[in-house]
Write a structure and sequence with these properties.
6 strands; about 170 residues; Rossmann fold; 6-stranded mixed β-sheet; 4 helices; alpha/beta; Small_GTPase_ARF; globular
């Protein structure tokens, strides 16, 4: 707890249902390119340099149903939770909402800020931020700092801004 921040970069956990776009998002942030991804078994981890002085360690954790019970093992030193949803997949919003509620109920995440990324905003039928926020019941998290932003992992839209915001949320906590 009492260690200086400069030595290590804060841990950020990327979670969400399978096919939300977490691995594509992380790959795009790290390489600037779109890469073919397959379902994540376990996790991917990368060091995200936001600027000369700031980096985040981002853990992209597999989102398939069979993997979700393991999410709790990644929460130990988590400074921010980034929850990615496919904003074009209305049919799974209820499932996403339940998964988010479950992970946020973990003791390790009590003071941890939340960033929701409404991914796939480049698709014509994607929901607005307001719709996603309502579907995930975000207003009910009144005791937690949270933000929601739209992005497209495929196109790289909104990613840099989103992680700059994540960094600000971490600094405020």
């Amino acid at each position: 707890m009492g260690q200086g921040r400069s030595a290590s970069s804060p841990q950020v956990i990327l979670m969400g249902l399978d096919s939300a776009g977490k691995s594509t998002l992380l790959a795009h942030m790290l390489t600037g390119q779109v890469m073919e991804t397959s379902p994540t078994i376990g996790f991917n981890v990368g060091m995200l340099e936001l600027d000369k002085k700031t980096s985040l360690t981002v853990w992209d954790v597999g989102g398939q149903k069979s993997m979700r019970p393991n999410w709790k093992y990644y929460l130990d030193d988590c400074k921010a939770l980034v929850f990615v949803v496919d904003s074009s997949d209305r049919a799974r919003m209820q499932e996403a909402q339940k998964a988010l509620r479950r992970v946020l109920s973990d003791e390790n995440l009590r003071e941890v800020p939340l960033m929701v990324l409404a991914n796939k905003k480049d698709l014509p039928n994607s929901m607005t931020i307001r719709e996603v926020s309502t579907q995930l019941d975000l207003p009910s998290y009144s005791d937690r700092r949270w933000e929601i932003q739209a992005c497209s992992a495929l196109r790289g839209l909104g990613l840099q801004q989103a992680f700059m915001s994540v960094n600000k949320l971490i600094k405020k906590s």
